[in-house]
Specification:
By secondary structure, the protein is mainly alpha-helical. The chain has 2 domains: about 1-115, Orthogonal Bundle (Arc Repressor Mutant, subunit A); about 120-165. About 70% of the residues lie in helices and about 5% in strands. Strand 2 and strand 3 (about 90) form a beta hairpin. Helix 1 packs antiparallel against helix 5, helix 3 (about 50-60) crosses helix 4 and helix 6 packs across helix 9. It is globular. It comes from Actinoallomurus oryzae.
Length: about 170
Amino acid sequence: MHDRARTANLLGATALAVGDLALAGAARAAGVSVSGASALVVLYWSRGVGVTELGRRVGLTQSAAARMVDSLEAAGLVERRPGEGRSVTVTSTRAGRRLARDLLTARDAPLTHLLGALDDEEHQALAVLLAKLLARAYGEIGDTELLCRFCDRGACTDDAVCPVGQAERDRPD
């Protein structure tokens, strides 16, 4: 039992460290909040999202999402456009899309560095374990957009199946 408690503790410490290295560092370098960085990545992969939906995808309330969009819009990174009826969608500007690509690159650098501690066999084993953990996390969170808000979707789906997307497809109705 002690081994499971230690493993859970190691996972928690690793998750926080990885999150700090990947998200906070990238957002800080870009001069935006972590939620703003996540929003830019969300918009990079799915253009034209309403403010409320964008907030849901990055884990913010509607009012917090509106303030975040205001900030990103003032920085010239997103723009609001009329949608259907009275709805408004948020899209990235060219500068916002460029920054989203830069954020993904900045996110990858410390993660790739950490993975350098593993040999090829360990790397493959970790990939299998992470896929299992992500599938379980989807079962708890139940929202692919929220769970994958800062994902490089191409890296996850080129020559592979996204474990979160597969967990969603496998979920009983």
